[in-house]
């Protein structure tokens, strides 16, 4: 690919790939966390939803959501020059993790490790891996 199309298409495809990969990893982590949690079945009983049905809906939402975030990040990479993009994504990711820690607290060990780990994974993937894939020759 050469010219303008490669300059636009490559970052979008890179964001799509990274978003889909994060979606798959996050889905696996959440399914493992739900399966190991003794409280999930009782928490979902008020909604009259079975755990397998919830897991299927959650998996689809995670995959689609992270893929859309990846496409958005690819588009932002096109619009924002590289050093500012990586710094902005890194600060935004750490800010969201810090906000979670402040609002929710870190005493919920299983939930906190899942959320903080997910945030760090997404921050590193979008701030570090996306620029590498977007400029891959």
Describe this structure in words.
There is one protein chain. The mean pLDDT is 86. The protein has one domain (3-134). It has five helices and no strands. With 137 residues, the protein is mainly α. The protein starts with a helix and ends with a helix.
Tally of individual domains? 1
Helix content: over 70%
Q: What is the 3D shape? A: globular
Order of helices and strands: HHHHH
Give the DSSP E fraction (strand runs of 2 or more residues): under 5%
- In the predicted model, the low-confidence regions spanning at least 5 consecutive residues are none
> What value does the Rg take, in angstroms?
17 Å
Main sheet attributes: strand count, strand direction, barrel closure: none
Task: Write a brief structural summary.
With 137 residues, the protein is mainly α. It has helices at 3-36, 40-45, 51-79, 82-103, 109-134.
Can you give keywords for this protein?
137 residues; mainly alpha; 5 helices; 85% helix; globular
């Amino acid at each position: 690919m050469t010219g303008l199309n490669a300059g636009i298409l490559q970052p979008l495809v890179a964001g799509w790939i990274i978003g889909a990969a994060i979606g798959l990893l996050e889905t696996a982590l959440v399914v493992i966390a739900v399966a190991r949690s003794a409280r999930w079945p009782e928490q979902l009983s008020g909604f009259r939803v079975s755990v397998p049905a919830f897991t299927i809906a959650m998996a689809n939402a995670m995959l689609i959501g992270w893929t859309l975030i990846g496409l958005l990040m690819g588009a932002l990479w096109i619009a924002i020059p590289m050093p500012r993009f990586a710094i902005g994504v890194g600060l935004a990711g750490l800010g969201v993790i810090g906000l979670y820690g402040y609002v929710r607290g870190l005493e919920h060990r299983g939930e906190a490790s899942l959320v903080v780990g997910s945030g760090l994974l997404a921050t590193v993937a979008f701030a570090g891996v996306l620029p590498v894939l977007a400029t891959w020759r």
